[in-house]
Design goal:
Helix content: 10-25%
Structural class: alpha+beta
Strand content: 25-35%
Oligomer: single chain
Order of helices and strands: HHHEHEEEEEEHEEEEEHEEEEHEEEE
Strand order of the largest sheet: 2-3-4-5-16-15-17-14
């Protein structure tokens, strides 16, 4: 997770429910506002902490605004889940835990090898079935609400108000500013420049989900130059995505064959984390022709079969705004 996300995360990381967390934030915010109504504290609370709900029922919005028919759910008796594998009549997923190095150089990551017959089986979900700024929930809670068997944290769309945002075939934002990733309904994936297209053009071309964080880790089989120097959201002073960090990435191997990866970090002897170029090399080694960096740090989380299986660097899950997931039975 980037340095600026932590203002949001402090309230969200509380073990209390979101309802209670929101009440505490508002009570605390009221005290701050009373002291400095025109000061930066009030601005920061409004911008980074207090929920700004734009769509109150995401499921209904997507049902009305997406023309894509999702992959059907299979007969539950035809589904098999183990500690490391998931199979249905149309989908196969396998989890691997990989450790390399030793001592202070140890790196541990989790890789989900996902093979689909229908690209719409990999879906997006927002915290609390709402869309807007600062709306968060723990990844495991979002995953459980959607009967997910597998999930990773997304791009933390709720921290920012720009980018092109298409989820499950529905358009949410159309304000291109950076390099993004688009996953298509025909099983393709591409790195693209958000500033050279529109959300509607992408949907017309079959876009299913877009992610807006970055940088691109692998493009056409190659690692782009300079990725260790890339800064995300520099308008708010982010310089924290460089260095050895926990990371989350999504990769594309070939049509309907994806890799979801979470690298743990900040725990010597277990996993130090990786640089951006180190993450890119992991994705190349996994066979990815396209790969993209998602939100990381304390936000990096992988959910499998009912629980988080990695070791988030915060000592527990950090609330986030969105996940990518595979629904059980699909």
């Amino acid at each position: 997770m980037t340095s600026r996300h932590r203002a949001t995360a402090r309230a969200a990381d509380s073990p209390a429910t979101k309802k209670h967390s929101r009440r505490n934030v508002l009570l605390g915010g009221g005290a701050v506002l009373g002291l400095a109504v025109t000061g930066t504290s009030a601005w920061a609370l409004n911008r980074f902490v207090i929920d700004h709900v734009e769509i109150t029922d995401v499921a209904a919005y997507e049902a009305e605004n997406s023309s894509v028919k999702m992959a059907a759910t299979a007969d539950p008796t035809a589904v098999t889940l183990t500690d490391t594998t998931y199979t249905s009549p149309t989908t196969n997923a396998q989890i691997r835990t990989v450790t390399s190095g030793s001592g202070s150089e140890t790196v541990t990551y989790y890789a989900a090898d996902l093979r689909l017959s229908d690209a719409t089986a990999l879906r997006s979900a927002f915290a609390n079935n709402e869309f807007g700024l600062n709306i968060t929930a723990k990844p495991s809670a979002i995953a459980a609400e959607h009967n997910a068997v597998l999930a990773i944290n997304g791009d933390y769309y709720g921290f920012r108000s720009e980018g092109i945002l298409i989820r499950n075939g529905a358009i949410y934002r159309d304000n291109g500013v950076r390099q993004g990733l688009v996953l298509y309904t025909d099983g393709r994936a591409e790195i693209y420049d958000e500033t050279t297209t529109t959300a509607q053009d992408l949907v017309d071309s079959g876009a299913w989900n877009t992610l807006s964080f970055g940088p691109a880790l692998v493009d056409d089989g190659a690692v782009p130059a300079g990725i260790d120097e890339v800064e995300v959201d520099t308008n708010v002073g982010n310089h924290s995505i460089q260095g050895l960090q926990p990371r989350t990435a999504v990769g594309w191997v070939e049509a309907n064959h994806l890799m979801l990866v979470v690298v743990d970090g900040r725990e010597e002897g277990y996993s130090r984390g990786v640089t951006m170029s180190g993450l890119a090399q992991i994705m190349v080694d996994l066979g990815c022709r396209v790969a993209y960096n998602l939100d990381g740090g304390g936000s990096s989380a992988m959910y499998w079969g009912g629980s988080i299986i990695n070791q988030p660097s915060n000592g527990g899950e950090r609330a986030t705004s969105d996940i990518l997931y595979l629904e059980s039975g699909v």
